[in-house]
Every structure is written in C-alpha cells, then in structure tokens.
Amino acid sequence: MRQAAIQKMAASASRRNRAGTKPHGRVVKHAEVRKGELVDCAEALFFSKGYEATTVADIIARAGVSKGGFYHHFLSKEDLLEAVVARLTRTIIAGARDILDDEKLDALTKLNRFFARNVAWKAETASAMKRLYTVFADPANAVLYQRIVRAGVEALAPVLAKLVEQGNREGTFDAPDPGIVAEMLLHITNARQALTIRALAAATHGETDKATDMFVARIRKEEALVNRILGLPKGSVRFIDRANFRKVLAALAS
After folding, report:
1. Are 222 and 186 in contact (CB under 8 A)?
2. CB atoms inside a 10 Å sphere around CB 238
3. Pairwise CA distance, residues 213 & 219, whole Å
4. Per CATH, is 2-74 categorized as 1.10.10.60?
5. Which residues of the chain have pLDDT under 70?
6. Quick one: which H or E segment has residue 47?
7. 97-253 CATH fold
8. Which of 3, 62, 147, 216 has the fewest CB atoms within 10 Å, i.e. is most exposed?
9. What is the 3-state secondary structure (H, E, C) of 130-176?
10. What is the Cα Rg of the chain in Å?
C-alpha cells in the first residue's frame, strides 16, 4: 500500500514537472516522493546491513540521489533512523485500525488488544528488525535512543490519548488529562533500556526463559501502576503476552 501511494505521487509529480525535466534526462521528483524513497532505502539497508554498518554513502547510492539531494531532506543518518522508526510506528497503528475504529469495543478492550497486536507484530518482525534492536539496546547510543523514543511517542500518543478519552466518557477510566496520561504510558514502557540489555544478553546465552520471566515481572509491575493511573481494578491492563514476548526475545537472540 505504501509503495502504491509513492508510485501514485511519483506519477503525479512527473506530470506536473514534465516541463522541468533536466536536459540530461533526470526527472525532477516531488520532494515528498524523494524523501519517502530515501526512507525506503535506509530501512532496507538498516535491516540488511545493520544501522552501524550502513553509511550515508550507501543510502545515497541505493537511492540514486546526489549528496546535496540527500542533505536537502535529512541532516544525518540519525535523522533517517528516526524517520524509519516513525514510519514503523505508523505501520503498527495502521495494522490495528480494525481494533481502534471498532465502535462496539470499549476503551479497555481496545487498549489491551492494541498492546497485544503490537507485541504480536514485534514477534513476527523480530528476525528482520534485530539489527535495529541492537542499536536501541546499546548504552553508547543513549542520545539516539531518546530520539527514537520521541519519534514513537509523537506517533502513538494521540492514539492512546483518544482511547483514554473514550474510557473517561464510558466511566471506566478516571484520568485527569488524557494527553499527559498517554505520554506517561509510553514513557513507562520505554524506560526499559537497561532491562532490555540484560534480557537480550541472557537470551543470547541460552537463558531465554529466565530473560522472559525477568522482563514479564517488570511489565506486571508497570501494569499495576497504569491501573492506578487510569483508576482501574488490579489486572485490568495487560501490556504483553508472555508467549509472544518470548518469541521476540528468541528471535532477537538468534
């Protein structure tokens, strides 16, 4: 679907810019089309070669743009990684639209199913994305990690805020400010870098069950905090399913 949209934009841009085609035959593309192509190329290279091993020159060569053309859209490789993460987050949201837009579901059911769908997606894509996870888990990339977190929060916070608003209207949630609560939910889930490093290390050494139990124990405490924030009974919110999370760890450690 994304590729089809890009192709449609490219065709439209081509029609608009026929008079502006360069003398040597290079077609002038719409800025958003070119930007999307750069993100496509970066995503493919980050997944295949790994973030650290991919250079800006690699991305430029794959996208077929000039150095100036690249820096017109992105200031650095870090900016591109942020764009890739934002796109992946939007993909997760789009994949859960059937849940989020279902008027028959109450807010708590939507919230739990959304979290479950998120973990299931990570389990399905973990093998392809493990080169990115190593970047997220490296303490040396603390600043980059925070940029990645921010990109995810900016995409997800409006979605969660809408669910909190629905819960408030239904009388199930008791959250004073849905926007702040949504940000808190996301930052609680993202404050796990050190734990993620330990869990991945344990899983890499063949202790996947131990790593899973360690992680799930932390998550259950987070769920208890979120239940209090939303004014829900114990056990209401569920962030992860143990079986699917174990699949994520096993794939990342392989």
Report:
1. no
2. 17
3. 10
4. yes
5. 1-29
6. helix 31-48
7. Tetracycline Repressor; domain 2 (1.10.357)
8. 3
9. HHHHHHHHCHHHHHHHHHHHHHHHHHHHHHHHHHHHHHHHHCCCCCC
10. 21
- How far is 181 from 176, CA to CA, in rounded Å? 8
Distances (CA, A) of 245 to 164, 205, 229: 25, 17, 24
Q: Which residues of 13-29 are buried (b: 16+ CB within 10 A; e: fewer)?
A: beeeeeeeeeeeeeeeb
Contact 227, 236 (CB under 8 A): yes
Nearest one of 244, 240, 181, 246 to 212, comparing CA atoms: 246
> Which pLDDT score, from 0 to 100, does residue 29 have?
59
**Residue at 146: amino acid letter:** Q
| Distance between CA atoms of residues 247 and 195, nearest Å | 17
CB-based burial label for 39 (10 Å; 0-12, 13-18, 19+): buried
pLDDT in tens, 6-62: 344 334 433 433 333 343 444 455 778 889 999 999 999 988 888 888 999 999 999
Q: How far apart are CA 33 and CA 201, in angstroms?
A: 40
Tokens of 120: 């299931």
* Under 8 Å between Cβ of 53 and 45: no
- 186 and 156 Cβ atoms separated by less than 8 Å: yes
User: Quick one: pLDDT at residue 132?
Assistant: 77
Distances (CA, A) of 74 to 42, 43, 126, 217, 248: 11, 14, 27, 40, 31
CATH 1.10.10.60 domain span(s) along the chain:
2-74
What CA–CA distance (Å, rounded) separates 181 from 175?
7
Two tokens, residue 222 = 């987070």
Coil, strand, or helix at residue 206? Answer: coil
